[in-house]
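Sample pair:
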Amino acid sequence: MRVADYLFRRLADEGVDHVFLLPGGGAMHLVDALGLTPGLTPVAMHHEQAAGIAAEAYGRARGGLGVALVTTGPGGTNALTPVAGAWLDSLP
């Protein structure tokens, strides 16, 4: 089992059923594992910041974890604003 497979199985066990993502080369191993994990639905977004905001809203609405998956480099930095917002609001 790959670490990526374990990660998504664990998220599914925690009640996550949607992952908001913008795929990219640096995260394709994670996107592959996501697609192979039963019970998880990938939701493609148009921008990394949108993925983060959607994950934050999902977590708020469900009272649990919200998951955003973006690629390395600029993709990661584009997702920092919603991550910081979630942290400031004490969201998981």
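The longest strand covers residues 18-21.
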